[in-house]
Amino acid sequence: MNTLSEERLVEAIDGALPQTQCTQCGYAGCLAYSKAIVYEGADINRCPPGGDAVVAKLANLVAGSVVKPVDPGCGETKPLHKACIIEEHCIGCTKCIQVCPVDAILGANKWMHTVISDFCTGCELCVLACPVDCIEMKLSPEPWSESDASIARERFHARNARLEDDKILEQKRLEALSESHSSDSKASIMDALNKARERRARK
To answer: pLDDT tier at 136 (50, 70, 90 boundaries)?
Structure first.
């Protein structure tokens, strides 16, 4: 019988998932899916990348769960494929960079992009985002490993932390800009009032 606390169970489930962060389960990454299983009763068979092996692991962790086939509505279980950008067709739009959950794509606006294959999880989110269909998924010579999963988890959370920091910095920038405009506006109003008083005083 599983006696793990809910928090520990979330960690255990997250540890069993492949960390591809593909969102095929319907949640925003493996940790979000883990929490949905524990707190919302989400089914354990919604991870195509993990396949039957992950379903079996989750069945051992989640009380009352039974092994069942992967939900076909979530996608197909298949060998690991990694993204490859056809660089001569890349227009440098950065859309793939914006959606990559583990920052595995290098590039800049209007500059050619390239995939860091060692970090690619095969999530295919970049394929869906590319407006010119210049990203192919190629069969990986090596299967996904626990080490790959660990690295992907770290990169996923590091990216999310960076995005959150960027959001906070942007909010502070906008607040400072608003305060600056407000101060400038008040100064302009006071200047106009002072000039009006001076004109009245001269009459």
So the answer is: very high
Question: Given a cut of 60, is residue 91 above it in pLDDT?
Answer: yes
Q: Rg of the chain's alpha carbons, rounded to an integer? A: 25
Cβ atoms of 71 and 77 within 8 Å: the answer is: no
What are the tokens at 112? 């050619």
CA end-to-end distance (rounded Å), the chain: 94
Report d(CA 67, CA 60) in Å as an integer: 9
Q: Whole-prediction pTM value?
A: 0.81
**What's the fold here for domain 3-74?**
3-methyladenine DNA Glycosylase II; Chain A, domain 3 (1.10.15)
Orientation of helix 146-202 relative to helix 30-40, angle to 10° = 100
